[in-house]
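// run 5 | inverse folding | seed 20
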């Protein structure tokens, strides 16, 4: 019992640390696209670890935790991708440090083909 509590607590704490580091990344990144990427990766991993830790601490909730983890894994990256594409479509500026814009290149190639 105590080993399970220790493992669950460590996993939950690790998830909280990832969420905290993701929030710091949001503050430090130069533009919207980098902030979206940083926030999504860290919040996805942090949420998964936090919920998994709770599932370890309370085995009777493990099924619900698995469903929540599955939902987070499917929705976070998709919503982030959709927000980034919408921001790119309306013309949100990239950072001066951005070297490659594959979406603009793909759209330019598509226009040339038509």
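// decoded
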């Amino acid at each position: 019992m105590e080993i399970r509590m220790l493992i669950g607590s460590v996993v939950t704490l690790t998830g909280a640390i990832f969420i905290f580091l993701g929030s710091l990344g949001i503050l430090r990144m130069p533009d919207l696209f980098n902030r979206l990427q940083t926030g999504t990766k860290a919040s996805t991993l942090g949420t998964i670890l936090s919920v998994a830790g709770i599932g370890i601490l309370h085995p009777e909730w493990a099924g619900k935790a698995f469903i929540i983890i599955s939902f987070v894994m499917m929705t976070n990256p998709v919503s982030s991708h959709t927000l980034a594409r919408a921001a790119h479509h309306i013309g949100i500026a990239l950072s001066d440090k951005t070297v490659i814009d594959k979406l603009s290149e793909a759209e330019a190639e598509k226009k040339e083909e038509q």
